[in-house]
C-alpha cells in the first residue's frame, strides 16, 4: 500500500460486487450449517445428559477439549480424510459448537419448573412427549442464547478455513495481504461483522416468535 492511497477503494468494491455477494453466500453457508448440525447433535445429547447426570461431565469434558484445539490444527487433521473441501471446515466448526450448545440445552431443561413436569406427567405425557412438547419449548430462550454465541463464533472462524482454500470471505483477507491491498481486507471484515450482527438479530427475532408467552409477560408488566 503506497502513501496517500485510500484505505478503501469504492470503485474496487463496485467492480467486484457480484463476486463479493457470491463469497458472502458461501461464507454464510459455511458458518451456519455447522450450527444447525451442532444443534441436531446437542439437543438429544443435552436431553440425555439432563436425564442421566453422570453422563454430563464426560460429555462436557470432551466438548471442551475439542474446543481447545486450534481451528487450523483441527482443519489439518480432517484434511487427511475429507480433503480440501467444505466438509473439512464444517466438521470442526460443528464440533466447536458442542461446547456451547450442550451446556445450554442442559441448563435450559434444568430451568423448567418441577411443577410443570409433574403437571405434564399428570396429564398423561410420557417422557419423550413431555420433553418435546413441554420442556424444550420452555428451554428455548436459554438454548437460543447458546445458538447466538455459537453462530457468531462460527461465522468468525470460517475465514480461517481460507488457509486450506475454503474460507468464504477469508479469500479476500488472504488476497489483500498477498497484494498489500487493504480494500478487500476491510471489505471482508465488515461483511463478516454484518453477517454476524444480522444472524444474531434474526435469532433474537426467532426467539420472540417461538416464545410468545415472554412477550405477554413484558406487555403485562
Overall mean pLDDT: 87
Number of helices: 10
Strands, count? 0
Structural class: mainly alpha
Rg over CA atoms, rounded to whole Å, is 21 Å
State the shape. elongated
Distance between the termini: 57 Å
**Major beta sheet, specifics?**
none
> Strand fraction band?
under 5%
Provide the low-confidence segments as ranges.
none
State the share of residues found in helices, binned by percent: over 70%
Tell me the series of helices and strands, N- to C-terminal. Answer: HHHHHHHHHH
Keywords: Membrane, Transmembrane, Transmembrane helix, Transport
Domain ABC transmembrane type-1: 24-203
Subcellular location: Cell membrane; Membrane
Membrane topology: Multi-pass membrane protein
Amino acid at each position: 500500500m503506497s502513501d496517500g492511497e485510500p484505505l478503501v477503494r469504492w470503485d474496487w468494491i463496485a467492480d467486484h460486487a457480484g463476486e463479493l455477494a457470491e463469497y458472502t453466500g458461501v461464507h454464510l453457508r459455511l458458518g451456519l450449517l455447522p450450527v444447525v448440525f451442532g444443534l441436531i447433535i446437542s439437543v438429544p445429547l443435552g436431553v440425555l445428559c439432563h436425564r442421566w447426570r453422570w453422563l454430563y461431565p464426560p460429555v462436557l469434558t470432551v466438548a471442551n477439549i475439542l474446543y481447545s484445539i486450534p481451528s487450523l490444527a483441527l482443519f489439518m487433521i480432517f484434511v487427511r480424510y475429507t480433503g480440501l473441501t467444505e466438509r473439512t471446515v464444517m466438521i470442526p466448526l460443528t464440533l466447536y459448537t458442542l461446547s456451547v450448545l450442550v451446556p445450554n440445552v442442559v441448563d435450559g431443561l434444568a430451568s423448567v419448573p418441577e411443577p410443570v413436569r409433574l403437571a405434564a406427567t399428570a396429564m398423561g405425557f410420557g417422557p419423550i412427549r413431555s420433553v418435546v412438547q413441554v420442556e424444550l419449548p420452555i428451554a428455548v430462550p436459554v438454548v437460543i442464547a447458546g445458538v447466538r454465541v455459537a453462530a457468531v463464533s462460527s461465522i468468525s472462524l470460517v475465514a480461517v478455513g481460507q488457509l486450506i482454500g475454503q474460507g468464504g470471505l477469508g479469500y479476500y483477507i488472504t488476497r489483500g495481504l498477498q497484494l498489500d491491498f487493504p480494500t478487500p481486507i476491510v471489505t471482508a471484515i465488515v461483511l463478516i461483522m454484518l453477517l454476524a450482527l444480522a444472524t444474531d438479530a434474526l435469532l433474537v427475532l426467532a426467539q420472540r416468535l417461538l416464545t410468545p408467552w415472554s412477550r405477554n409477560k413484558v406487555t403485562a408488566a
